[in-house]
Model the fold of this input.
Amino acid sequence: MTLKQLEYVVKAAEKNSVTEAAKELFIAQPSLTAAIHELESEYGITIFYRSKRGIEPTKDGEEFLGYARQVLEQTNLINERYMGKTVGKQRFCISSQHYSFVVEAFVELLKNNIGDKYEFHMRETQTYQIIEDVAHLRSEIGVLYLNKFNETVIKKTIRDNNLIFKKLFTAKPHVFIGKNSPLAEKKKITLEDLKPYPRLSYEQGSHNSFYFAEEILSTADSDKDIVVCDRATLFNLLVGLNGYTLCSGVISEELNGSNIIAKPLDVDDYMEIGYLLPSGIKPSSITVMLIDILCKIVNM
Done:
């Protein structure tokens, strides 16, 4: 294995095409194909398979590419430290449940001096996907919550994927509602108060277990359920339908406007929100920077 081979395979993954990657690398296509085959032979895996869209990583390939990107990033850090130059773009990816404070931290991260060239990914996604992303090094860090209902299952899944969970903060359950909701004047909201209104929640895909739900009390009865995939849609439905969703209560008015408000939910529960990291892999400098920003935001 050489650094050049790792650069080749990462570029092929970015372009989803050996031909396009070879053009950008200024090498012949057979040379790039040979480099990929050499890596596959050396490690006994298949990195890519062919599809209608070009080439796509296999399961083994996704994991290998995660490690390859880590090696190339560390090489960039060495070059920057001792040679005063950065080679190529800085790359970073975070996977998270739908938390506005994470987006706020992501914005602050990009405002820091991280270089002139970068490719950053902010993935608000399903709970199990967050765990898979970090386990396979598609993301360097993941953000999700635990509570007394889901922690046994989630913690086992985290351990099985060789990850570690670090707590950021513990939140009391809240309800997000529109500022003009009939419930907006209440100091505290009960489950009984919520019964007439639509409950909004995030889709969890094939792992649609109650334990992977992003909202607490996912097993509670509701006559009106609406399931969505993204935060903007959920917020629009909160306002338009006087709906609600159960949450941590942490929201950035600067980023999300003043139409959504949080009210305490009168239940005996909690949300322990924290981040996932791969066990045994030292976090990159960008990951450490993001964790510092997250800690500052949640402790304001």
